[in-house]
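[AMINO ACID CHAIN]
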Amino acid sequence: MGMPHIPILTLLFLLTPLCRSDDRLTHAKPLSAGDTLISEGGVFALGFFSPTSSNTTMYLCMWYHNISERTVVWTANRNNPLIATSSPILTFTNSSDLLLSDSQGRTPWAVKSNITGMGVAAVLLDTGNFVLQFPNSTVIWQSFDHPTDTVLPNMKVLLSVGRLLAWKGLDDPSSGDFSLGFNASSNLQLVIWNGTRPYSRVLLMNGGSVFGDTFQNITFFESIGDTGNGSFYTYHLSDGSPYARVTLDYMGVLSTLIWNRSSWTTISKRPASSCDLYASCGPFGYCNHVGDVPTCQCLEGFEPVGPGMNSSAGCRRTEALTCTKKSRFVNITQMNIPNKFESLPNKSIDECASKCSSNCLCTAYAYAKSSSNDALVDRSSCLVWAGELINTGKNSYYGEILHLRLADFPVKENTRLIKIVLPVIACVLILTCIAIVTICKYKASKRQKKEIHKRLILGYLNSSNEIEGENVEFPFVSFEDIITATDNFSDSKHIGRGGFGKVYRGMLEGVKEVAIKRLSKDSGQGVEEFKNEIVLISKLQHKNLVRLLGCCIHGDERLLIYEYLPNKSLDTFLFDPTRQCVLDWPTRFKIIKGVARGLLYLHQDSRLTIIHRDLKASNILLDSEMTPKISDFGMARIFGGNQQEGNTTRVVGT
């Protein structure tokens, strides 16, 4: 029954016109499903697109044409999708209106021009702008004035009039909860909104260029201006830069991305951490971006309201500020300007400082010089605050000087403080000198003991033929330090036992957690294995080999100090039914690869060719990330650089 249909389907396919790839739409050439407008340089394409695999709904969209990843940058009918089977079409009417319609008579999107004549055309430009224009290129309407979730380079977005609206979901282009726009009370701030609530402040702008950054030789500039109809946001790139876009995603993250050969690379995003969320650090708290991890801290002269800075309760003054007491201003550099400021026009920096100083209710002021040459931009930069300071931050590479008002130190209190502090300082200096002399004597004694210990161990090791002529270097740990670290080898510190002897957990110098192996008198391994392990593991450096931190010989005691690995050995997981569930396949595969890399290093890549000879689950140790580390080199054999095989005089290993 199916065979007779094949020639008919083939004929229909041959009779169907090929997908059109022109850059313009005219009265004579409408755009149907399957057709595509492609900009003159092949940068962008416009056509009908379904974001889901079901293909039940269709949107009129624009996307990058000549990259491998389908990336939509603009959607016409985002809140009014068409049914894929309804034959959607984009056409001109007799009055030159641009009309999106389907076979069921629905018109989910239209552009009104009310111009008679046939000269009007819709053109897709290489900038990503879809324009309605006269034959002389005069623009009647453009998509740049009606953005969805993406801002393209050199695109001026009137965010004081409307907002950038994120998609509702990953595959849902309809308007979501998150938007980007200026603050309703001031066009100096770009804010990400969650509904009607501020979610994260993105930029504070004082006219002209406000941000410049370089990524892989690409210079990126953001700026604002004023068209007379409202403030706009735009950005541009240095010449020769790859494709770039600024996108607000459905999770509320505003990202700047560039196309890096085969994928989009994020060069900046906001919010970048939890303390970038609006008012997350509370009143008079700020998000400090100077360190590796952004954290909430209190402004100078303030302390946390509660324990730590883990809540939005914020900070309070260490000394109350009232109109009856004198005050002073401290200058805090590289600060993001707090929210809820008042902008005072046409003020110099001295006038701005005087305005805040003369008003006891003014808690802070800032003055940032504008770099704009636009006559329409308000170039005054005097910002003042009354009451709490909300949502500020500190950066290492840009920001303004925040002049913060604090209570002044009373003269009488300062005098009394000096009388108390000077004798205390004198006593502290005397005690410090005594402490320094004592510490120096102690360190000299300790160095002398360590040197004696070092000579003892090197003499002990040089009796081994395998290390003759070798210079072994590694830390020597005193027996007294080991006694302290293990509470004199107490049972509470005992964590395991092997052929070498007992293993203890300890804290060297009170900060470094270690595992200490103590050779017992009835140990299955002897002095030669002890020497072998010291020599071998001190020469081997690899992420999948356990790291030797030091050793100790004291009388009959023989001890080795290793890095402490909290997850102990592999056999504690393999043979314990309650812990086997931790070893899912990805974790097992990670352990297999790590052991293989460690063995490859021992056999081929280390400066010594090593055969372990006792590899088993109990000798595979696991760190907190379940990364495997090979241990116990007492049975190992060293091969020569060109040696391929060897003989053993006794059976060893498990």
Summary: The helical segments are 5-15, 349-357, 411-461, 479-485, 527-539, 571-574, 585-605. The longest strand covers residues 172-183. Residues 274-408 form one domain. The two ends are 70 Å apart (CA to CA).
